[in-house]
Specification:
Layout (H helix, E strand, L loop, with lengths): L4 E4 L4 E7 L6 E7 L8 E9 L2 E10 L3 E6 L6 E6 L3 E6 L10 E4 L5 E6 L8 E6 L4 E5 L4 E6 L6 E6 L6 E6 L3 E6 L8 E4 L5 E6 L6 E6 L4 E5 L8 E3 L6 E6 L6 E6 L4 E5 L8 E3 L6 E6 L7 E5 L3 E5 L10
Antiparallel strand pairs: 1-28, 2-3, 3-4, 4-5, 6-7, 7-8, 8-9, 10-11, 11-12, 12-13, 14-15, 15-16, 16-17, 18-19, 19-20, 20-21, 22-23, 23-24, 24-25, 26-27, 27-28
Length: about 325
Amino acid sequence: MSFVAAFTTPGLHGYSVRFSPFLGARLAVVSCQQYGISGTGNVLIFDNTSSGLVLRQSFVWGESLFDLSWSESNANIVVTAGGDGCLHLWDVDRTPEAGPVNVLKGHSREVYGVDWCLARYSANLVLSASWDKTVKLWNIGDGRCLNTFTGHEHIVYSAVWSPLVPKCFASVSGDRTIRIWDIRKSYMAGITLQGHEAEILSCDWSKYDQNVVASAATDGSIRVWDLRNPRQFLKQLSDHQYAVRRVKFSPFDGNVLLSCSYDFTVKTWNIGAQSTAIEVIEHHTEFVYGIDFNLHIPGQIADCSWDETVKVYSPVSLQPALR
């Protein structure tokens, strides 16, 4: 593994990390005091420099923050998901004292996931996933909630836009299902997969095949699905010992998958070749909650953990010449 750029966040436990879609050296992290049970939430903006990670900006919110997503149309805007049931819009060029640009209230329970739409035709559309068992669709431009998607019977942990199919997203829940939605039909999911034998915490879409989705559950399993055959998964990956908190497909290779877990590890996978991890990264001492690929630097990833650290590095298995 190449040089690891690391930053310690004393008293702040990492929940989510995302690279900027505009600037290859910039990333944002949301972290919480007291493991997100109580205390403040924090938005941390870093630049990855030749001398390591440099904290560029920091914002504090009075409630826990669990997830974030960068705007796809403005390099300075980040949206966060909060324990107060709100979405918060932040301008990273503003001073910390200025607070969020806007706060959107609509959920009756904690918001655990947020995702900004990739499509240019809908640059202001954001999804939020909540403990109130719903997903909401927002127009960030004017702050309106456009639709509420009901059907899940437990906490919705994540809702993620399809990068290839317009107006389509996937959601996963503690009810053990993966649901595929059309934003024009909030009353019923188009496809419902009986996904795992445990709560499902995360999902992601392949960037190369519009029918392929990966899901990750509290029993340590990852499953890869072809939506044309929703009754049976394509492959199961079972190397993790505890809950898999997030799973991400590579933007550079349709067979490469990244996962992080409560077993303190990050793992890389080649779903086209084998069912065991091709690399295991063990550089954390607590739950690993956030992972992301850098869109600008092939092979570079970031992670964040409850051990109060953020790390940027390039795993050996993700280097093009070695795959």
